[in-house]
Automatic annotation (TrEMBL):
Residues 7-124 form the Glyoxalase/fosfomycin resistance/dioxygenase domain. Pfam families: Glyoxalase. It comes from Pedobacter paludis. It comes from the Bacteria. This is Glyoxalase. PANTHER family: BLR2408 PROTEIN (PTHR36503:SF2), BLR2520 PROTEIN (PTHR36503). The lineage of its organism: Bacteria, Pseudomonadati, Bacteroidota, Sphingobacteriia, Sphingobacteriales.
Amino acid sequence: MKVQIWANLGVKDVKKTEAFYSKLGFKKNTGPESEELTSFLFGEKDFVIHFFKEDSLKNGMKGELADLKQGNEVMFSISAETEAEVNDWAVKVKEAGGNVFSQPESFQGMYGCAFADPDGHKFNILKWK
């Protein structure tokens, strides 16, 4: 059996989300697009994250979405090759309109930072020491 996995996240404004991830340099997925959905490819293996308009995703899930102001749904990790690359990510995220809630620093054998996109979805950028 061949299995493929991807993520589906809810967003308030599909166009704003599209602009944010485009500014960060992520590649648009050539898959399905609409006013209800934008999609990007992450990493060397092109992990797909679909960003659905919140109401559309709630309908498909038959339930409520996580309140990202109260907690986390998931945190995606992105690898970096150098500490300078981590620092560059922090600058790019701020310029694109994201929130760097954990500034670049050394911790637990890594160097990294963490950010939230405009809807509160969390990512960290990590360079293993």
